[in-house]
Amino acid sequence: MREIPATWMRGGTSKCWVFDRDVLAVPGRGVDEVLLRLYGSPDPRQVDGVGGATSTTSKAVVLARSDRPGIDVEYTFAQIGIAEGRVDWTSNCGNCSAVVGPYALRRGWVAPTGDVTTVRIDNTNTGQLIVADVPTPGGRVTEEGQDVIPGVAQPGLGVRLWFVDPAGRTTGALLPTGNAVDVVDGVPVTLLDAGAPVVLVPADEVGADGGATPAELDARDDLLRRLDRIRRAAAVRMGLAGSPAEAARATPKLALVSAGHPDRSDLTVRMLSMGRTHPALAITGSVALTAAARTPGTVLSRFTAGEQEVLRLDTPAGVVTTRAGTRDGLLAIGVTRTTRRIGDATLVLPDDANVPTTPVAAPAA
């Protein structure tokens, strides 16, 4: 067996295991195989590994100190399949992005500078530059803070993430089809790439209640099947897959959108992740929604006021606020996430055969 050091961290409303890139280089075994075995996949319970058996808790952050000018950390995100024996590398996780700056400071890869230290991060999945403003009061590295965000019961260290010039990082264009609105499966949608490729679907166009709870939406198998059909067809139109069957589970994401509540929000959103409704909001999705709200003619036009600097997004966990600004003279979309180091661990990788790749059914109770 082999021992692999890792750090367990919460970033925003997700949890992830953080690895230095070189520790996953195991002779004779691919990185995908190593991660699947460590997480206990494929198994809907991930009972023989460190996975959390949900899409928001079966994630890996792979980091390396960078020697490239203008970049401090190279960051690769992996979504670990649960019942499927697959690792999806096609997208980034905005929530998990929040752990990168504090981890780099703790490791000494970046030296603190004043009350706030800027950490420049290259997300290798998408080529996205993320600028993280991390609190370092008095020039000291700290892991504690009193910031609170929707969807997390306890306070944490608040990190402001700026997604710099986010348009087209995966497909090459903000609107991959060239259209502000496309009709997919009879539904008017916006196919947009900013932060991550996202399919924006007006909730009322598919007979959904835009303010429904995740449990209520997930109970509608007919709706989930239709949304997945739309998502897969959209992947083809966006150039992300050759056929609907080849579309990745994590990319593109899909968001149901509807009007906000004037007293507290501009837009209501329910985002799907890995086929289920996200309990809060994928932060890369919030970047896409902010970019869409600033783009004339998208399906958000009937809900939002155009190029507003602040956008308030009503999610199942509460209101997430994004801000449009500039970094390095370029459009940047900012959002604050909290983070906390939960623990450091040594994970044991057994010397057994390759992991199976076929889905494993849940056992009887």
Topology at a glance:
Blueprint: E1 2-11, E2 14-20, H1 31-39, E3 59-65, E4 73-80, E5 87-88, H2 94-97, H3 100-107, E6 116-123, E7 128-135, E8 157-164, E9 182-184, E10 187-194, E11 196-202, H4 214-218, H5 221-237, E12 253-259, E13 267-273, E14 276-277, H6 283-293, E15 310-315, E16 318-327, E17 330-349
Parallel strand pairs: 2-3, 4-6, 11-12, 13-15
Antiparallel strand pairs: 1-2, 1-17, 3-4, 4-5, 6-7, 7-8, 8-17, 9-10, 10-11, 12-13, 13-14, 15-16, 16-17
Structural write-up:
With 365 residues, the protein is of the alpha+beta class. The chain folds into two domains: 2-166 and 338-349, Diaminopimelate Epimerase, Chain A, domain 1 (Roll), CATH 3.10.310.10; 182-334, Roll (Diaminopimelate Epimerase, Chain A, domain 1), CATH 3.10.310.10. The chain contains six helices and 17 strands. The chain has an eight-stranded mixed β-barrel with strand order 1-2-3-4-6-7-8-17. The protein is globular.
